[in-house]
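Continued from yesterday's entry.
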Amino acid sequence: MRRAVFEVPKPPGGGRQGAMSLIGDLFDAPSRMTALDPLASRAADVADRLLPGGRVRALLHGRPFRHPAHPAMAFVPIGTSLSALLLDAAAAVLPGGRALHAPARGLSAVAAASAAPAALAGWADYTQLHPDQQRTAIVHATGNALAVTCWTASLVAGRRAPLLRTAGTLVAGAAGALGGHLSYRWAAGANHAEHLPHLAGDGKEHVDVGALADLPDGELVQRRAGDAPLCVLRRGGSVRALADTCTHLGAGLHGGEVRDGAGGPEVVCPWHGSTFRFDDGAVVGGPATAPQPTVDVRVVDGRVLARVDAPPQP
């Protein structure tokens, strides 16, 4: 079997700047580990089959809250495990501190138990990620699984329990840092359309995006307001539009499908099925949690004028 070799580039310079660069390189390394692709793909298929759909899947994504659920749910195991670590540290230095091991044990039990629902939310998001994001997420999930194993083992470990609790919390901290890197560096769970209103101009004036006669009836097309791409739908003399970049992972909505919903026409993202209502940008289906930036459209003298709303309205 061919072994994958990954080299971390030598950081430029030295001192604190070099150390920071090395940390960034280490966090970026999993995204380049193509050897993880078979496992990552298989894990996505299994998770997609086993996780419930419908409203439960929407809840796991965080759609009812208009915010990803996984990061918020992760605060419980992180907070309780860190509290247990602090109690163990206090027990080591305070007279009679051994009495603190009992509440530390209870906190570790809560950390291990609360990791399960947080993991379910994470796996729901994982199924929709790009391959490079999934590689990082697999390493993140592996670290969390190891942390839960340590916390669980500490419940029956006797004198070694504090050591196991500490090890689990340190591993969870590293895995959590990698999860944050996945969110910020690799934009998993981020709103991919937040910047579009800023590209459309000052947000005060409508911009001419073309002639009404040039828009095909009943079809999605892309037009631009300034530097912001728009997904435009014409039906007869009526024109609707949304920001074209899907808030979930950045797909062009103009390549999707139109359907009629209870609140009017909707667009279905071609990548992961996130569905947005044209009239207010609301998420009505799929993994997206952030609403789509809306566009105020007017037809004047046969010309289509558009203004991207800022900030996006829920």
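--- second protein ---
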Amino acid sequence: MIELRPLRQFVAVAEELHFGRAAQRLHISQPALTQAIQQLEYRLGAPLLTRSQRRVALSPAGAALLPELRRLIAAADALPGQAQAAAAGLAGRLRLAFVSSIAYGPMPAWLRSFREAQPGVQLALREATLDVQLDAFAADQIDAGFVLHAEGAVPPGLVTSCVLREAMVLALPEQHRLARQARPSWAALAQEPLVIFPRRIAPSLYDAVLGHYRARSATPVIAQEAIQMQTIVNLVSAGMGIAWVPASLTQLQRPGVVYRAPAGEALRCETSLVWREPAPPVVQRFVDHVVASPAAGESGAQRPQSAAINHPAPRARPRRRKPT
């Protein structure tokens, strides 16, 4: 194993092409420098310098090695700063998963501002539903994730911070009779075929949707299931039924689909940022960035077409729950 010190000494001699000046630059004696270069040449098995009474020059091996040694020394000199940046969460890699609905909400702005604030952090993004994310956490494949769930029903076993609370709204085929109503009534929509996600990908929200029907003495007629919210909206466009979607998804303007807020008490959902403890510095820095963002908290949709959906957006008061 070759230490960095003799490499630095060789670089000094190679740049000065004079043992005396190089020794002064390194603050060592000339005999000690000469001996160090000789030992380095012995360990490398090749002469690095050619010497005469009048001049010192680089050998072919020394000339070939010099650029590599400069890069190696520069990389070694950068290590303390890199270690300190990683310890402070200013550098490293963040593996982040997210449900599709948050991509239509504030997540793009959070990612953009985080990358601007922390250019040394590499983001590795993965779209995944709650069930996939839980498996990925167990396999140590992700560091944090945005998950969708019913109001107050955070997933167990993780630290959580609610970053978005919003109403669920109806996605309707544009030519549907209910699309002509500003706020469709429950009596009108209770028996409409429903397009919904499978229970396994968001069990608390699935149960909340069905519970919303049962609380009104209605039984939902499930016509079709689809995993991604975009696919659900596409199926609505195809006339397969109506669907409940987070209000932020009204940003997805699919031809043939309109969004309506139903009459009466709103069904609500939450998106939480989840991670494990102890959180690596880069994860904690991302959590702090998102929680401090003015975009976090209560949200309503932008007004799509004629849908009357508008809610205030106060500053988030995140909730954290540690594993039990």
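The mean pLDDT is 85. The domain at 92-299 is CATH 3.40.190.290 (D-Maltodextrin-Binding Protein; domain 2). Will compare against the first tomorrow.
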